[in-house]
């Protein structure tokens, strides 16, 4: 360093610049240079010093994600620092540089839900709103779709098609809700009617058993009654849950539909069991009709078993595909949920 009052020579200037650049390249325990820290802390004064003294230090990227100072400013929602750097002509190319995963600063803003930064980036820069990262995701794809303001925010990202997609998704959930409700009401009506008129009939004579089921003592009737009751009450709970006046958000409604779908599976399985038990009660147990009983039971087992095998196969296939495409935590940060989790960490 030169003492006060000394006159520097060109060689002294070069040496001083080299020293400044070496200092600018130092990193802390988090792998950040002093310039990175300035962008993180929103320190405009320090950014001005670096811009004047060592402008080349702005080209240093973080490791291992290859983030620019613009990414860091957006990640910490430092609008002032971002504006200061964005207005520097020599940093224009750096502004449009994606990180290791192809995420632009607009992707970063979207993953954080930072609408103020996103609006500035869209309005004041030439970053393409539909640019996709290596996972094929545009910035709008990283927005929180469960946010009540999602349609209006998506429009700012140039996501008219995503707004329509969101509306279609919401309509699909409502249609599924209505369909499950109708089916549940139908099952409840059928099981209630059958419960009031049990198979095999009831005693009509004026005896102590009048009005009681004729087949009440058989095992098949007991199976029927339990299965029929399960189908009836499960369907009733589904109806009560779905017709309740609750302002479901898309994510909440989806979770409710997942639960009611599982309940519907239980109800349908109980209804099928009830039907087989009724068949066992009402069909005559003669040598020439036994095959009807076994055929009915076989059809029930094959159809239900086949359906569940198919569903489990599809689930296993999906899980295996997900395992095959799994990445390490750093790579996970580049996509959807992982991307947001990386920022939060």
UniProtKB/TrEMBL annotation:
A Pfam family the protein falls into: PGG
Domain PGG, chain residue ranges per copy: 171-280
GO annotation, cellular component aspect: membrane
Membrane disposition: Multi-pass membrane protein
Location in or out of the cell: Membrane
Residues annotated as transmembrane: 180-203, 223-246, 266-286, 292-313
Superkingdom: Eukaryota
SMART domains given in the database record: ANK
Main location group: membrane
Name recorded for this polypeptide: Ankyrin repeat family protein
Species for this entry: Arabidopsis thaliana (Mouse-ear cress)
């Amino acid at each position: 360093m030169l003492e006060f009052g000394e006159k520097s020579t060109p060689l002294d200037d070069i040496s001083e610049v080299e020293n400044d650049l070496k200092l600018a390249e130092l990193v802390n325990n988090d792998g950040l240079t002093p310039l990175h820290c300035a962008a993180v802390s929103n320190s405009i004064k320090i950014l001005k010093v670096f811009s004047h003294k060592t402008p080349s230090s702005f080209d240093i990227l973080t490791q291992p994600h290859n983030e620019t100072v613009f990414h860091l400013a957006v990640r910490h929602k430092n609008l002032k620092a971002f504006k200061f750097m964005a207005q520097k002509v020599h940093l224009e190319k750096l502004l449009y540089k994606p990180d290791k995963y192809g995420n632009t600063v607009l992707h970063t803003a979207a993953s954080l839900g930072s609408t103020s930064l996103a609006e500035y980036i869209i309005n004041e820069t030439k970053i393409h709103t539909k640019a996709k990262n290596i996972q094929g995701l545009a910035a709008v794809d990283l927005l929180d779709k469960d946010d009540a303001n999602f349609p209006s925010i998506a429009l700012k990202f140039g996501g008219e098609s995503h707004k329509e997609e969101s509306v279609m998704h919401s309509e699909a959930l409502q249609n599924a809700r209505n369909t499950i409700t109708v089916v549940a009401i139908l099952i409840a009506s059928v099981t209630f009617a059958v419960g009031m008129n049990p198979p095999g009939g009831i005693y009509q004579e004026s005896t102590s058993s009048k009005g009681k089921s004729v087949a009440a003592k058989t095992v098949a009737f007991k199976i029927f009654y339990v299965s029929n009751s399960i189908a009836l009450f499960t369907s009733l709970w589904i109806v009560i849950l779905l017709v309740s006046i609750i302002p479901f958000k898309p994510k909440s409604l989806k979770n409710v539909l997942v639960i009611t779908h599982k309940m519907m599976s239980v109800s349908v399985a109980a209804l099928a069991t009830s039907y087989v038990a009724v068949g066992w009660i009402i069909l005559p147990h003669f040598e020439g009709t036994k095959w009807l009983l076994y055929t009915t039971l076989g059809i029930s087992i094959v159809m239900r078993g086949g359906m569940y095998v198919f569903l489990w196969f599809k689930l296993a296939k999906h899980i295996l595909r997900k395992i095959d495409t799994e990445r390490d935590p750093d790579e996970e940060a580049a996509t959807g949920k992982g991307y947001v989790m990386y920022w939060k960490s």
